[in-house]
Amino acid sequence: MVPAATTVTPQAYLQARSRWHPLEIAFWLATLLPFVLFPNYLSLASQIAITALFALSLDIILGYAGIVSLGHAAFFGIGAYTAGLISKFGWGEPISGLIVAAAVAGLVGFALSFVIARFRHFTLIMITLGLGLLAFEAANRAHWLTGGSDGLQGISIWPVLGLFKFDLYGYTAYTYSLAVLFVVFLGARRLINSPFGLALRGIRENWVRMPAIGADSRAHIRKAYTIAAAIAGLAGAVLAQTTENVSLESISFQRSADVLVMLVLGGAGRLYGGLVGAIIFMVARDQFSGIAPQYWYFWIGVLLITVVMVLPNGIVGGLSHIYGRWRRK
Amino acid sequence: MLPPVFGVLFDGLAYGMLLFVLSVGLSVTLGLMNFVNLAHCAFAMLGGYVTVTLVNEFGWPFLATLPVAFIAAAIVSVALERTLYRRLYRSSDLDQVLLTIGLAFISVAIAAYIFGTTQQPVETPGLLRGSVNVLGLGLGKYRLFLVGVALVVTALLVAGLEYTRFGAQVRAAVDNQRMARGVGIDVDRTFASTFALGSGLAGLGGALAIEIVGLDPNFAFTYLVYVLIIVSVGGLGSIAGSFAAAILIGVSDVAGKYYAPELGAFLIYLVMVVVLMWRPAGLFGRR
User: Fold this and answer.
1) Per residue in A121-168, pLDDT tens?
2) What residue of B is the nearest CA neighbor of A135?
3) How confident is the model at residue B209 (pLDDT cuts 50, 70, 90)?
4) What is the least distance, in Å, from the CA of B66 to any CA of chain A?
5) For residues B171 and B163, what is the distance between their CA atoms, to the nearest angstrom?
6) DSSP single-letter state for residue B285
7) How far is CA B229 from the centre of its chain?
8) What is the crossing angle of helices B93-115 and A253-266, to 10°?
9) Which end of chain A, C or N, has fewer beta carbons within 10 A?
10) Which residue, among B126, B111, B194, B209, has the nearest Cα to B157 in the 3D structure?
């Protein structure tokens, strides 16, 4: 954020930030390329879109409001299981399934947000970790409902809008995930560039001072946390619907850790950070794990240390820094 | 004759003592520098693998490898502290979490590369095998040994912190870091030594843990959760707190496995979340 030399009104500042940059349009056009260039990788592309959506939801609370969460997969899992169960019990219509899953995850998120907003720092990290582990254990133990470690079987999803059946090659799956991602992204972009988004950034920078200028930190955090939980639930629901299967992995600590890594790699506190991080992470994992799956995490570790030490704002942060310098020349 | 519930209590106590040795170092370093070190159990794992290698490859007796496990973990941790950790003392929680999770990931991959992903066996001396009969309870000798080691460690730590010059410096730095710097205590050096000591204890704990819980490359993450729970429940920087929390968690875990196996780890996580909501600074925490 470069403060302009001349005085800028808050309205003008937010308007300037919400204007679409040509690079953004190029980015979204590029997401259509897999249809033409990699038709064999469409199911991977669909996974990437889902993961990017999940990373975007974490970005709202971690990148903007500064709440570190080690248990965000709980909401992803709740959304996935909700969507899976609705379809298992006879209602396979995808879009209404999405809405219900997001609502359930959002409700749970709203209930937990009262806890989250009360704590900071190490205690908060431990509470989010504990809640995430509790959710995992609950899903693991409720074998009669979730299928436990066998996964939730017997999901069948009706065609999207009654027209497009989920096919083996992932054409529908990728179109569907990408559409959800884009719609949610528009919403998130609007949210972040609103006064509310600005207040969240204020809370991240100084938790004590924000209430003094009239923005109650806790109320803002509760709202942001609920929204993030709903989006994470949406991402989980899309995964359940496109793969027609929900495994315990979708609610595990591993997923919480992975999404954190992606977001930080891409750049937390930037709308495109989670998206870019998800693309790099998922493509790299797809390529590396073919060679030696158990050493994949060695490279993740090296990557994490490098990002923390050398690129504190992630890849997108580094790139925009270079771009900004180039523009000023 | 004592009813079998005492046997369960004893097993829980021994397990708690093991967890205490594993976690006390993290508690002190977290309290001292507010540094969230998620790689703590990677040092414990290092100690475990040092012991396994020395016993199985070089034929050392088990007991002789314990000091080596301590020293190896301490040396490696100081090397990392000097090169990586110290740059992040002033950074956000998130950066510290990321750096140390990265280190833990790397340690898991390296352990899998060198030793494979199978459980490592280790032979304990005959002296520590079998059990002794006390009032009708068969108490495992190795578990008695664990309790003994933990009590010695606790006594040394408490005495060291209470009665030595170094201990006074550590306490001063935990209480008020800026003031401690102001009166001329080299807090960075105090921290490096404390960090080495804490990681060394973790290494010792890792070596002691092999007989009870086994050793495989996932050790760095499996026990990290337990260690973090103990530290946060006990309160940062409090040895007595860690001790009490370790017994609480050890006994509830073992008792839970005996009497309510269907709950699994649910109980432990629940205990942690409830305690933290009730007292965010932990049972014995001051801040």
Assistant:
1) 778 888 898 889 888 888 888 777 777 777 777 777 777 776 777 776
2) B266
3) confident
4) 28
5) 11
6) -
7) 11
8) 120
9) C
10) B194
Domain containing residue B270: 5-278
Contacts of B117 in chain A (CB under 8 A): 294
Under the banding of pLDDT at 50, 70 and 90, the label for residue B190 is: confident
Nearest to A222 by CA among A128, A115, A66: A115
pLDDT of residue B204: 92
Which amino acid appears at position A20 of this protein? Answer: W
Kindly determine whether residue A264 and residue B263, on different chains, have CB atoms separated by under 8 Å: no
pLDDT at B31 over 80: no
pLDDT of residue A236: 92
Q: What is the pLDDT of residues A33-90, one digit of tens each?
A: 777 787 778 888 888 999 999 999 999 988 888 888 888 999 999 999 998 888 888 7
- C-alpha to C-alpha distances, A318 to A26, A103, B99, B116, nearest whole angstrom: 19, 36, 18, 38
Is residue B28 a part of any domain in this protein?
Answer: yes
Within 8 A of A129 by CB-CB distance, chain B residues are: 225, 228
Q: How many CB pairs under 8 A join A and B?
A: 112
Q: What angle do CA A51, B221, A72 make, to 5 degrees?
A: 30
> Given an 8 Å threshold on Cβ–Cβ distance, is A297 in contact with B276?
no
**Which pLDDT score, from 0 to 100, does residue B131 have?**
73
Query: Contact A154/A201 with Cβ under 8 angstroms?
Result: no
- Cβ–Cβ of A305/B102 closer than 8 Å? yes
pLDDT value at position A235? 93
Chain A nearest C-alpha distance from B132 (Å) = 37
Q: Domain total for chain B?
A: 1
Max CA separation in chain A (angstroms): 64
- Closest A-chain CA to B227: A126
Q: Which of B145, B120, B147 is nearest to B219 (CA)?
A: B120
Global pTM value: 0.84
| Interface touch A137/B103, C-beta < 8 Å | no
Residues B174, B33 contacting (CB under 8 angstroms) = no
Give the C-alpha separation, A132 to A255, whole Å.
10
The three-class DSSP label of residue A74 is: helix
CATH number of the domain bearing residue B43? 1.10.3470
* CB-based contact A93:B7 (threshold 8 Å): no
Dist. CA B23–CA A317, nearest whole Å: 36
Sort out which chain A residues have CB atoms less than 8 A from B106's CB and list them: 297-298, 301-302, 305
B-chain residues within 8 Å CB-CB of A115? 277
B212/B124 Cα distance (integer angstroms): 11
Candidates A128, A297, A302, A306: best to mutate against B (most CBs of B within 10 A) is A297
The pLDDT of B45-63, averaged and rounded, is: 88
Q: Looking at this predicted complex, what is its ipTM?
A: 0.79
